[in-house]
Task: structure prediction
Amino acid sequence: MISLPPVSEISQLEASLCFALADPVRILMLYALDERPHNVSELSSLLSLSQPSTSRQLKVLRERGLVATDRQGVSIIYRLTDRRLIQALDLLRGVLHDQIAHHVSLLEEINVEHAPGSAAA
Result:
């Protein structure tokens, strides 16, 4: 059996992490858990999701080690495992903001060039 080189294994782990972040609901869950730990019912209510859907999404996050659970009586409480996830998401939002701003400036440029009375019109 051929073993994968370490770089390939790391890339697989990165892809698995990115998969967990590739769903808008899971991102919202991470932001909610950054504010404070929640149980499934609280997250369901907060995000207007069914409990089964919330549980499925939490399972993906838990399997990838992004959230952990603590038992409090009969409730299972979910918490964020590493605040750097939120920092990474905030960085991605910054990149997204810059991309949107760039696209807006391109659209404004096009509108100015094609506006009545402009030299290009």
About this structure: The beta strands are 38-39, 67-72, 75-80. The chain has two domains: 1-82, 83-121. The longest strand covers residues 67-72.
